[in-house]
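Hey, I'm writing a tutorial for new members on how sequence and structure tokens pair up, and I'd like a real worked example in the thread rather than a made-up one. If someone can provide the structure for the chain below, I'll link this post from the tutorial.
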Amino acid sequence: MTLTARVHFDGKVIIPDEPVDLPVGETIEAEFRVASRPGNRRQATQASWEQFVECVVPGLNIPEDAFRRENLYEDPA
């Protein structure tokens, strides 16, 4: 069973913002992710971009003209 709920932390315990349908005493696994706040959206976007750029694999440096239609079908010999 998968459940997604918005919660907040009061300094001691995690409290759901809305009722959740879980059996009392049931052991659960939880994964926490801080929700982006409107003021932090630019920082989150910048961090995501930097993470993406770190994963870029260096490749060939192909000039843009090589992708022009007339160059795609030329015989290289």
